[in-house]
Amino acid sequence: MASSSSLISDTPEWNDLKAHVEEIKNTHLRNLLTDESRSQSLFLDSDGIVLDYSRQQATLETIQKLFKLAQAASLKDKINRLYGGERINSTENRPVLHVALRASRDAVINSDGENVVPEVWKVLDKIKDFSDRIRNGSWVGATGKPLKDVVAVGIGGSFLGPLFVHTALQTDPEANESARGRQLRFLANVDPIDVARNITGLNPETTLVVIVSKTFTTAETMLNARTLREWISSALGPSAVAKHMVAVSTNLTLVEKFGIDPNNAFAFWDWVGGRYSVCSAVGVLPLSLQYGFSVIEKFLKGASNIDQHFYSQPFERNIPVLLGLLSVWNVSFLGYPARVSMESNGKGVSIDGLPLPFETGEIDFGEPGTNGQHSFYQLIHQGRVIPCDFIGVVKSQQPVYLKDEVVSNHDELMSNFFAQPDALAYGKTADQLQKENVSPHLIPHKTFSGNRPSVSLLLPSLNAYNIGQLLAIYEHRIAVEGFIWGINSFDQWGVELGKSLATQVRKQLHASRTKAEPVQGFNFSTTALLTRYLQ
Ligand code: F6P
Question: What is the ipTM for the molecules in this complex?
Answer without folding.
Answer: 0.95
